[in-house]
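Could you help me review a protein record that somebody else here produced? What it holds is a sequence and that sequence's fold in token form. I have pasted the whole thing underneath without changing anything:
=====
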Amino acid sequence: MELQGLKKRREMVLQERDNIIKNRSLLELKHMRMENSTDRRLAELEGQMRALKQESSTLKPSAQQGDTEAARKLIISHNQLKALEKSRKSLLVSKPQDSEMELSALDDRVDILSAELEYLNDAIAERLRMVSSASLAAEGIQCCVACLSSEEAHGVLEHCLMQLVQVLQEQKHKADKIARLEAAVVDKTHQVDVAESNLKVKHKELERRLREVQREHAVKVQGLLRQIKVLSREQPLPLPGRVDGSASGRGNGGEASPGMSSCTDAEQEAAFYKQQAEQLSKDNFYYKLRNKELKQKLKGMQAEGSSGDQASTQADAAAGKRPDAKVMTSDPSFDVELDHYKAHLRKVGTVVRLSKSQLLPLSNGQVDMVKASARRRHARSSTNVSNNPHLALC
């Protein structure tokens, strides 16, 4: 059956190749005729163009001398020459190119069919060799069986049956193994699908959390910027380089675009706030150092005062005075300075460190209260310094 199918396929391929070869020959003949007609037409046009060029060259001197008839004929010949040139270009453009593409496609198809025909011939020859060898083997087996005795034939048949049973068992085991492997493949495919779906869910969850974190970060940044702007309004300082930049922009005679101006303002504000932060850190370091020095000085004064109090108490006890009487020091300004410093320490209280996440935007009422308390503290500190010359010197 397979050999007959190969032979039928070979006949179909041969018939198709013959038809394509016939069509190609007809198309090639048609193409050659069209090319010949186009070439003849081009040759005629070129001859007419040469004749018109010669006529124009003979009429040109007469037309230059003022002959109107020669000038008119020269113009007519020029127009005819242009028309012929246009026709020539159209013929060159309209050369049959589609036929060339069809011929190349037919050639490719013929090559494919020839290769398929060679493959079919080889397959048919191989099948014929297999059939002949099988027939020879069958004839040899029949001759051997005819020469065997009944016992020998029975032994050969038993051996063949055992081989057949063994082959069938092997096929069954292989089929079971293939079924198990297919089930394992299906299970693994299901696991892969579940893992991919879980991965997609995790990816979406991570994207959602990232958006939430970005949103919270943006809200915190906006709150910090509002606090910085509110605190900077209390003592506004000129931004560095803003006046120079605006003056240079006006001097150039052009107005900057809104995008560039906003970007420049943002950069200048960032530089200004950075400079303010550096200045505040320097002031903080200075005040910490000054506070440390004052604490050391206060400890020394307290030690001296305690030793003086003990000496005065002993002297009063020896003189017969009351031990609970108030002792006046030799320097009354020291008591005033000590009282002011203790009151300042009570007002300052304990330093508390806060993280950035604990900072919250202030309302307008809270900002007004902070400004009022700052002004009151500044007024009290200036009054105390003016009243106490020792604090002014410190």
